[in-house]
Amino acid sequence: MKNSPQKWLTSRASPPGMLACGFRGPDGKFTCHSLEEVCPVRTLEKILGHFEALKGALFSDQLMPSWTTWAFELGQIRYVERPDGWLLGLVVRSDSEAQPQLDPLSTEFLSLDLG
Amino acid sequence: MASDKNSQAPRQVLFVDDEPDFLRVVKEAFDSLSAGHWIIHCASTADAALQLLKQRKMDLAAVDVVMPMLDGVQFLQLLGKRYPDLKKVSLTGHVTEEKRSACLAAGAELVIEKPLSAEGFKSVYAMLDDLMNWAPQQGFQGMLRRVGLQDVIQMECLGRNSSILEVYNDHVLGRIYIEDGNIIHAAGGDVTGERALQRLLALPGGSFELVPFEPPLDKTISGPWEFLLMEAARVRDELAAQAPAGEPAVDPKTLVAPAIGSVRVVETLICSGAGEPLFDADCADVPGRVLFLKSVAGQAAQLGAIAALGNFDRLELQFDSGRIIAQARADRLVFVAVAKDNGSP
Q1: Distance between CA B308 and CA B321 in Å, rounded?
Q2: Which chain B residue is nearest to residue A72, measuring alpha carbons?
Q3: pLDDT tens digits for A39-84?
Q4: Contacts of B298 in chain A (CB under 8 A)
């Protein structure tokens, strides 16, 4: 059964400490939510938009991770890219309830039927 | 108390607020109220505040909750990590329970509404002055969440100190032994060695105290402290991810954690900030890894410019077969590859 990415995002990706969450679809369009004003939608769009540059600089066909986590002093950025082109971006506050949810959410996203 | 004050060096007080008019009023009011006992420093951005903190030791920082780019709550967290001894208060136009909880959790000692009248300034002055006069406790103590146990260990190791870090809560006492800047032993509950170090660093709360060094009966830990701390951070995240929702990663009574799959370190490389190898264990391609770490540093700088999340710590890459952790700091580059079972990341 197909899942609506928007619905999944709003129902699952909002534990306390989640600053922003969103997708870049295979068509290149963004669907982003900001949960705290410190990370507005525009910032998350820039974060998602930067993924291709990161990928080009760091990864290759031989070194293609399931997901990557950029850990900063105050928060973490998680990128999860699916083979069908969907890209998930999550920004969480460090040591928050949202941080341990990154792995379960990433696993869930990879197995979603997005059609 | 006036004679006490006269014998004290003036207090260095930093106000951080993006409203220049408020800063001007604050300076005038507190200059007058303190009669020269406070030296007031003002910063209208987090960057400017950090510059001032680099230049001189402050006794107190009063931070506006709502600021652009890096908000007050995040800034308090940053201050807590970089300046654990600095007393911090939040100033806000309107105190809500949500704001109060967030600021206190981020390390603020007090959350105060911005004063609007002369009486209000007098009252805030009294509170802040009182806060700065609290006598510091003997020795070095901290709360796990607020000061950062990892930061203290890092500080001891970087300073090549010898000490014992006692980590405790109501149920358990653990000890981490540091000798000449190396972590040599850890014990807590029924656990010893690197596992004890990882569990103590994964405790959901508690206190710690730095006490004079005495040699342990046994030395159970060896290896570079950078790697040990990084691996502990990785294990903590992994335990937290595996723990049931709302449950701590480690049982605070027993230090018992859910069993995790067997993993082994397959490659370690530690370099200076310039990329000169300092330690290498089974690293197949040192120049390639150094190049990768430098690229990580470059990309982290670009990401950091987009998202105001403070200094970069590490990049973690998750593969089906294991994980790579790449740490890129100004003074150190670290590459660690960990494989699950017989896999190779």
Answers
A1: 32
A2: B312
A3: 999 999 999 999 999 999 888 877 789 999 999 988 999 999 999 9
A4: 57
